[in-house]
């Protein structure tokens, strides 16, 4: 184990932190059952330490039937036996804290699993009962109540309503679920639900958890006043606008809940932190990121921003302006467990329709994997130099690509199964990590992997990259280490480059970042070169490369 350094005392540690998302089932398997687990994460603490991280965020590890990769939680205050025990969690937290890494857990407050004890009670109970009132049960329409109560749509199924009989209910009601039918939505108008989640947050905060990632933070409150309004398609963020009166999301009443959560967080020293996953109109983001509510909010704009100078500059400017309004810090992210890996996106011609490409098992258009990884590293160094915190996703430090050819019979994601197989879903970025160049699951564990790993994973394994100074892993390690010592005031200044494909900005302490997006190599400005995401060509910055300088 690396030596103990403990946690920093800085209450603002989160403002410019490097946070690494672990998808526990796919990180490291300690007992050879093909499923990653908490002991697996603990066994890799030296690796996490080598990335100079401030925190890790664990996607759900709670008991779950995995109808949605663990985002269907059956018990919010326990560990899935396949992933370990609460004692294993405590051990992981203690070992992370010893090496100065904090820990976020994922809170999924919009919906539970249908296997949650409350939902099991609700299904058994009568209409109008206390048990049903924790969820959203309604009578159906039509002469015999045979039609769903409204036209609301769900993310993973055609309708947002399922008849109770599907879950074994004996009555004639329907229940609401914004995601899969196995993910019934809570009724947040019921104070019992509020109380229950305060208890869950306190449970983890008391155990020493430092932060919380809040799943679909915008959806807890709905307009449930009768008659329920019609909403046959998802509203766009523009349609929902900035009024705080969405039917199913982004309602003003939400902030009463988050203010209560904030009060709880502030009872700890240092105060617990939270980051909201909220898909809302940009003008509404400050409400979620306010210091009076959750404190920080994901900004997903770089997931969609094309790798081009003008688009990158605009994204940065918008995000910085927003952060000023928030009084929070910016959050930068290129990938997570819901997205096609960004190395792959950046290796595809931007005109390619990614969906049809995925559906063709990645064969319908050429992927330039090396260019993708190179651009991805340039993008990473660019965002790591910006003010604010960076949320990274496991495997991106290896320059890992999306696995596009998982056989249909092995796909687990409800996005695929429930969308008439029109969308390959998110399993391609959730394939267990390769640690070794060979072995049954490339060192992930001794008993195979719960999603199939392709043979090319060998070249992206930790072992393959560890001793190569130009590998993605080496660049991440050096850059993240440097970043720790370079972090300074949350400001940037743009410098003229005279080249529309090159961006150059600096931070107040003389830390400069120059990215050449495409075209001719760019002459190196004066200064001490700290790192380059790709080897220089005759001292110049080639296309798809970011350089950090100190002046
Ligand atoms: C967002 C999570 O990131 C995603 O994986 C999940 O499917 C939905 N929320 C529903 O919980
Ligand atoms: Ca295991």
Automatic annotation (TrEMBL):
Matching Pfam families: Alpha-amylase (PF00128)
Glycosyl hydrolase family 13 catalytic domain boundaries: 21-430
InterPro entries to which the protein is assigned, alphabetical: GH, GH13_cat_dom, O16G_dom_2
Gene3D superfamilies: Glycosidases, Oligo-1,6-glucosidase, Domain 2
SMART domains associated with the record: Aamy (SM00642)
Similarity section: Belongs to the glycosyl hydrolase 13 family.
Identification of the protein by name: Alpha-glucosidase
